[in-house]
């Protein structure tokens, strides 16, 4: 079903602060930062954290979630509920930044780094490109370790294991790519799917599929 960004509210699973839309890129209202972001341990054989420091310091921007998709008779469902869905409006150029800021807020609110999978629809995330330069075996070993945020793309999402939170950056790519990647990302989300991108495009691509 289409994602509806109106009248959003942060869901308990994300446990982040209330937010304002990520589109427009206007100057954000300063907000308290609860503490420094956890630094992942060094990988064996190479110094430095698993996740490189972003080249540009960004000012945290509040996240605006969309209403969760109705899940039918949730009160009587005997099994676990379907993942909640949040939409962060962003342009294709700003979707990756919006996804990074969503990850920052999730970590600040207490989510463990290993709970989070980030999927890019267009260009690869710089971390993934960097780690793949050392070989796929090393890259997927980090995925299997499950102790840090892991970044993948639409082409390899099917190989990624489920995690409690999946963040998708619709940072380009064709409608066909998004149409196949978004439902797959939803299937990998245990509790929460966050999609950063153009709401009209996302709703057009997903239609009633989600």
Characteristics of this structure?
globular, 5 helices, 15% strand, five-stranded parallel beta sheet, alpha/beta, 210 residues
Structure description:
This protein has 210 residues and is of the alpha/beta class. It is 25% helix and 15% strand. The chain contains five helices and five strands, in the order E-H-E-H-H-E-E-H-E-H. It has helices at 95-108, 126-132, 136-145, 175-188, 199-206, and strands spanning 84-89, 116-120, 150-153, 163-169, 189-197. The chain has a five-stranded parallel beta sheet with strand order 1-5-4-2-3. Strand 4 (163-169), helix 4 (175-188) and strand 5 (189-197) form a beta-alpha-beta unit. Helix 4 (175-188) crosses helix 5. The protein is globular and about 35 Å long.
Describe the SSE topology.
Blueprint: E1 84-89, H1 95-108, E2 116-120, H2 126-132, H3 136-145, E3 150-153, E4 163-169, H4 175-188, E5 189-197, H5 199-206
